[in-house]
Amino acid sequence: MWRRLSQIVVKVRRRHGFDCSGSASSGFPTAAGAQSKFDKTTTATMPSLSEKDQLAWASVPWTSVVDEESGNVLGWRKSQVPYIPGGVDNSGLSLQTLDVWLPASCTPGYATSQAPDAPSLPSQSGHWIVYIHGGAWRDPMIDASSFSPTAINLLQAAASSFSKGSVPIAGVASLNYRLSPHPNHPTGGRDPNREARHPDHISDVLDGLAFLQRLGGATGSWLLSGHSCGATLAFQAVMAPSRWGLDTAIVKPTVVVGLNGLYDLAGFITMPPPEYVGLRDAYDEFTRGAFGDDETVWKDACPATADDWTSEWQEGKQVVLAQSREDSLVPYDQLEKMGAYLSKSSSLNIREMEAGGDHDDIWKKGDRLAEILYEVVSGLM
Description:
Radius of gyration: 20 Å
Number of helices: 11
Distance between the termini: 19 Å
Helix content: 25-40%
Mean pLDDT: 83
Structural class: alpha/beta
Order of helices and strands: EHEEEEHEHEHEHHHHEHEHH
């Protein structure tokens, strides 16, 4: 199931959607009619979907992800869809975007080069998996596309599960968000994508999730995951938005999966484990870059300081903390402290899993991350 695909063939076709019988129809519910004009009757199931949302979604075509060995379509992908209202005119903020993958396994024997129409909206049975990348809130070399190896493995797993009569995945998404300045990648203050300061990062994440939900994705029982600082953002997303001076409302996930996560920055900077003392200055630098110099803000922003997780996240059922003991950047005690804190301050089911490898290996390779997410999401069935 987790074999690496030798090559992913990407093909773009602006044609018709398919229902699960394989016939041309609106199997992917569309916000457009036959002449690509938006139809109020087709968007009635998503009452908050604006025309700007529709334009933003339709601005990016679907591309097919094909298993070259079998010739079967594993799924469909949209890349860098703008999630801030303004659609294609919002080109200046390229990091306020998301990538979406849909499994094609709802169609028996699906193997076609025809892609759904660009305005088609995701709607399938199963659960959504949403991912937030890491990079210390500032690394421009890590973005939503870093989830691609994992997403492809998840599409392969969905195809395999369909053959056994069960498809737990409805869709997969990976979010970009504005970054803080990076000393090794200066912009001279000329790039608004790279001048973010808390709460800009979590504001973007919530906006991205709200956009996806207006489209009909990631509602009901769904899974939110994040790696490194992305794990921090995942937990921030299920805390009360008023903490960050925001009012963005989302349907919160039932499960959060933290991967090699940062949960107590202030605690690490104050007293890092002996083998990680050499990283104290680096932590201090990127923390100040993301959150400013007020150490009270550092504490308040970290998920290990929430007073009452039961009231903060009423929809929450389970937290999965995956950490590698070989991680050279994040100590294992970040997992231990977060797990202990959640156990004391909530009735959540807390589960620990081994990530394996060094800090970034889990997303660079993708197979272990896909295994973790697929196992967890299958438990929601």
